[in-house]
């Protein structure tokens, strides 16, 4: 038996879910143009209390570890770690792209590969490739999209490109017969983070709370503030 609170703040979408033995009990998602992570604690409170539970009853805290937005990941991971320390609960960390792949598992034929993509500025994306059951084919990486991207894979089978970075891929690879693009954007969600976290809980794949850091994938590059014109 497990009661797991899951958080996903990898993008501007802020998502919180509560799972009992892998089944969704509650899920709150906030979609905004700007980062909505500031509402994270409110969503946590709503998910737990309105489901009839208390934070003390949780068995573990799970978080989408990245890749994704630097700011979003910092907020999500720091909140998860704070809850773990305060409640004396273990921490589970799930790859954001892996959780996204599980959202589409079963929606396409088994011949299709699933390629979740997250925007990483300019023509760069964070991406990985999974089979129809969510098993990894190509590992998570940061890459610049060009006409040769995923060339070998696209000659072998249809590939479903999705996520907020898929538009970059569509502009370059959309003409290829095996390139498939869903009509709507698929966002990271705590629903599938919690589903994978339930498996990780049974397998005792816990993180060291004190040392755990988000999976940024590449170094942070800040932008210089614009000069004020007087």
TrEMBL record:
Keyword terms of this UniProt record: Transferase
GO biological process per UniProt: tRNA threonylcarbamoyladenosine modification
GO molecular function list: transferase activity
Signal peptide: none
Domain Gcp-like: 36-206
NCBIfam families referenced in this protein's UniProt entry, alphabetically: T6A_YeaZ (TIGR03725)
Protein name stated in the entry: tRNA (Adenosine(37)-N6)-threonylcarbamoyltransferase complex dimerization subunit type 1 TsaB
Organism of derivation: Larkinella rosea
Species lineage: Bacteria, Pseudomonadati, Bacteroidota, Cytophagia, Cytophagales
């Amino acid at each position: 038996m497990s009661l797991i609170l899951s958080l996903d703040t990898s993008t501007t979408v802020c998502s919180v879910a509560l799972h009992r033995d892998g089944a969704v009990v509650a899920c709150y998602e906030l979609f905004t143009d700007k980062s909505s992570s500031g509402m994270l604690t409110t969503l946590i409170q709503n998910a737990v209390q309105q489901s009839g539970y208390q934070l003390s009853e949780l068995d573990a805290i799970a978080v989408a570890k990245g890749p994704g937005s630097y700011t979003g990941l910092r907020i999500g991971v720091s909140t998860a770690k704070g809850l773990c320390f305060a409640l004396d609960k273990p921490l589970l960390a799930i790859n954001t792209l892996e959780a996204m792949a599980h959202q589409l598992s079963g929606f396409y034929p088994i011949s299709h590969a699933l390629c979740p993509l997250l925007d990483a500025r300019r023509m760069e994306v964070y991406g990985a490739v999974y089979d129809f059951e969510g098993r990894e084919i190509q590992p998570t990486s940061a890459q610049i999209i060009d006409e040769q991207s995923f060339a070998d894979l696209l000659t072998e089978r249809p590939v479903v490109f999705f996520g907020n970075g898929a538009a970059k891929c569509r502009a370059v690879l959309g003409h290829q017969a095996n390139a498939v693009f869903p009509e709507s954007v698929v966002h990271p969600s705590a629903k599938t983070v919690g589903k994978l976290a339930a498996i990780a809980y049974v397998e005792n794949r816990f993180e060291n709370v004190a040392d755990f850091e988000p999976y940024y994938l590449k170094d942070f590059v800040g932008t210089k503030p614009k000069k004020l014109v007087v």
